[in-house]
Amino acid sequence: MTVHDPPPAARSSRFRQARTLFPDLELRPASALREALREGYGPKELRGDVLAGIVVGVVALPLSMALAIAAGVPPQYGLYTAIVAGAVIAALGGSRMQVSGPTAAFVVVLVPIVHRFGIGGLLLATMMAGAILVAFGVARMGRLIQFIPLPVTAGFTAGIALVIAVLQLKDFFGLSPAGAPEHFAERVGSLLAVAPGARWEEAVVGAGTLAVLIVWPRLRTRLPGPLVALVLAAIAVALLHRLVPGFDVATIGTRFDYLADGVVHAGIPRLPPMPMWPWRLPGADGAPLVLSFGLLQDLLPGAFAIAMLGAIESLLSAVVADGMAGTRHDPNAELVAQGTGNLIAPFFGGFAATGAIARTATNFRAGGRSPIAAITHSAVVLAAMLLLAPLLGALPMASLAALLLLVAWNMSDLPHVLRVLRVAPRSDALVLVTCFLLTVLFDMTVAVTAGVLMAAVLFMRRMADLSGTRLVEDGQHPLLREPLPAGVVLYEIAGPLFFGAAEKAMDSLHATAGQAGVVLLELGAVPAIDATGMVNLESALARLERDHALVVLVRVQDQPAKFMARAGIVPVPGRLVFAASLDEGLSLARNHLSRSD
User: 468-596: which CATH architecture?
Assistant: First the structure.
């Protein structure tokens, strides 16, 4: 230890002080579970969490299968995701009521990955996304997600909802388009080409399921709508199949099968998630993947999209949960938990998972108050898979499509989008529409990147409009109690001096400042300055020095003062001085002028 190092006790004290002042800098895995247990957790709380977990598990069961099918993989992989990722994320997360699993938002990202790389590629991309999310959490980037503007999230969410809805039309109407086009326009064209072949049986089942899903919540019963709608649909299809000749509707059992002990079985396996090597699963051509650096490079854009969308959706869901329950989540612990869940789940057949707003809200309404509820939800999904697998195979594909159509509608939040378009500034509306179109026509990564860049440029323009410099006349400044002495000019600079506004703010100094003996620059309304602002300020000071004017920097705030000191802008007798108040600055100006005379 050198003589300049503080003693260990002092370093420890500073660390504790920094941790107290900046709690978001501390990484606290499983913070939500530990806090819930620390506050007192007894039989009453356990009973409430278990009951809520049962309700959420019932809701998650059909959704997990439907979302797996929508992503292009067999339904059991969605159940594996809810079981493994849901439990791991809940145990390690930073939000007490967050329920994680497969979500509709991922569908538009996962479909192209499955199309190009198969189920094996999807699981590998999920693992890579998990590693990225862990890195986000370790780097304490949880709060940065809040800087994504509302028009960006509203735009790409509405675009995702439209893509999901279009993907469901095939099963809802029993269509059989040729191939699986990757792009939206091609997908719509292929559906229109086979639209005359729509089957009335599928449409009736889908419409009936959708009607029950819409009407049931208005009855204000405790039974989850998806459970009632899908059970009624399965019973109706079984009866109609016996009573109406030729009535035939695709179900999970007729569409999917699995291999066990060398025998092909219909539906989904009655087995728990089993350990596996994700890279040994089939690729797009049905053959096992060949793990290589080139494959990982090809999967990286999709993995990054999964990670970004997972971070955004999980933290937005956690914020919604905080608003309902009056709690406060730990964003960095949540990101690490989401990443860990996505790293572990692929070794058991699970794919991309994140916080699900609808299931999280259901958890709160059902009485869940700790991560035990989300862990229970995973156990319920596992129990249903082990006990009810044959019955799950009877669920109609059209009914699952109807469920996702309703999810897409709720996800779009169309009334909110229309309100933003109506009342927000035109620039925000432009960002929203651009993100929507880019999501639909290209992908979510392009939409978010372009949207954030557009929003940043528009924000800089607005800040530049707010920043500026004005020449203050007598009586025009609240702190100016007396007339300015002859030979003294006062400029008030307002707003942050950053690269979008600095040149504009300093330009107005050129005209009259050089004619005065003393120039007062009132900086009390400048909260921050960046490198560009500093260069422009230095240029202005250099011009004033050439004009032999004394510059008085008045009321410099902390951040600009520290930056100026590092840049070498320090008091120089007769050329540059600092004043803590306008009165002090005027006094310095008079003294300088009296000496000059």
Answer: 2-Layer Sandwich (3.30)
